[in-house]
Specification:
The structure is a single chain. The protein has 150 residues and is an alpha+beta fold. The protein has one domain. It contains 3 helices and 8 strands; from the N terminus they run ααβββββαβββ. The protein has a 6-stranded mixed sheet, with helices on both faces. It has a two-stranded antiparallel sheet with strand order 2-3.
Length: 150
């Protein structure tokens, strides 16, 4: 795993690209357009990435037939999930956190391009404790269910 300073640099570079896309396209465009523009911006900046990266989760060490696709895997260690919705929800965060956990990747960015000012959330995954941490290093706490727990 890369050291914290290198991971922060990766995130900084990617967040710059996210802001550039939002500055150019503005709010309210559909998610696919933002993703296409982000592909172009990452390429222009020389940031290595894979778009629509497919992976199969493991069950007891064996690959399953189920397949997930993450929007972007940047620099080999940062997942970027793009949304164009009125507001980010616990479900959007859970999707990113599951990808981070299943792939054991240290960084995740959840971006919502829809609002006037893009919402960009940065998270870190600690594989040892299996905790998701916020950008200030504190464990992320959010209830996934409203009301009673199932």
């Amino acid at each position: 795993m890369k050291d914290a300073a290198e991971l922060k640099k990766h995130i900084y570079d990617i967040v710059g690209a996210l802001h550039s896309v939002h500055d150019e396209l503005g709010p309210g465009v559909n998610e696919y357009c933002y993703q296409e523009a982000l592909s172009m911006e990452l390429s222009d900046r020389g940031i290595p990435f894979e778009r629509e990266k497919a992976f199969r989760p493991l069950y007891k060490g064996r690959p399953m037939n189920a397949e997930y696709r993450i929007d972007f895997l940047c620099k080999g260690d940062v997942i970027v999930e793009c949304k164009a919705v009125v507001a980010l929800t616990a479900t959007h965060r859970a999707q990113l956190f599951n990808y981070m956990r299943l792939l054991k990747l240290p960084c995740g960015i959840l971006v919502n391009f829809y609002p006037k000012f893009a919402t960009i959330e940065r998270y870190f995954y600690d594989a040892d404790t299996q905790e998701v941490l916020t950008s200030d290093g504190k464990p992320f706490q959010e209830r996934l269910f409203q009301g009673k727990q199932p």
